[in-house]
């Protein structure tokens, strides 16, 4: 996979570059020092994943993510930051970040997060997940009715961070069936990826605990 690092701290970029270069399946294709550079380099380098810092000069990570997802929807953004509060987590995911990890993450765990995102999984740090779970909004009736009962079950399992295989096993269906349900969920809820779908579920009480 091709990875672009976007962070305004030289030491952080050097540390990430040093470790990622040791991974045979990862190629670091560039380094951006601010959000504006990240947007420009996303277009020229076409990375698979961008490791995006949240607070940067000129353009922050949330603004950069919004621009990138609008122009290059297939590029995956993993937010890598020091902030785990709801005021940072939710806007980042709503902007299009498919994952949210903290900078104290172990290097091996970061690499597994990158690989997980390439498999289509949602990768959220436990502290970020706990923030999303706080004070979920009550669902409007029409919101619940958008999804079939089976799609609601799939969404509830997806919100737990499960892969398609794990969801299929839990619901006793095939992975192909799960993939079809997830595609329908994305369309009906007008979300782009699993992480946004999970956020929607939490915000509207569709995690399986309130049904």
From TrEMBL:
Gene3D superfamilies: 3.40.50.2300. It holds the Pfam family GerE. The modification 4-aspartylphosphate is found at residue 53. One of its GO terms (biological process) is regulation of DNA-templated transcription. Residues 140-205 form the HTH luxR-type domain. Residues 2-118 form the Response regulatory domain. CDD domains: LuxR_C_like, REC_NarL-like. It comes from the Bacteria. One of its GO terms (molecular function) is DNA binding. Keywords: DNA-binding, Phosphoprotein, Transcription, Transcription regulation. This is DNA-binding response regulator. It comes from Planococcus salinus. The lineage of its organism: Bacteria, Bacillati, Bacillota, Bacilli, Bacillales.
């Amino acid at each position: 996979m091709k990875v672009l690092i976007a962070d305004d701290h030289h030491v952080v970029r050097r540390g990430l570059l040093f470790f990622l270069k040791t991974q045979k399946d990862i190629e670091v294709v560039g380094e951006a020092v601010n959000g504006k550079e990240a947007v420009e380099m996303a277009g020229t380098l076409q990375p698979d994943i961008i490791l995006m810092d949240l607070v940067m000069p000129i353009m922050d990570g949330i603004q950069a993510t919004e621009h990138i997802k609008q122009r290059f929807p297939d590029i995956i953004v993993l937010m890598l930051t020091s902030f785990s509060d709801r005021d940072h987590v939710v806007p980042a995911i709503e902007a299009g970040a498919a994952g949210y990890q903290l900078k104290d993450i172990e290097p091996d765990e970061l690499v597994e997060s990158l690989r997980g995102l390439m498999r289509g999984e949602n990768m959220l740090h436990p502290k970020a997940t706990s923030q999303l779970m706080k004070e979920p909004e009550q669902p409007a009736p029409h919101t619940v009715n958008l999804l079939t009962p089976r799609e609601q079950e799939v969404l509830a399992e997806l919100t737990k961070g499960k892969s398609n295989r794990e969801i299929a096993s839990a619901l006793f269906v095939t992975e192909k069936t799960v993939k079809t349900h997830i595609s329908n969920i994305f369309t009906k809820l007008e979300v782009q990826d699993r992480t946004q779908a999970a956020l929607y579920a939490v915000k509207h009480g569709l995690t399986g605990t309130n049904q």
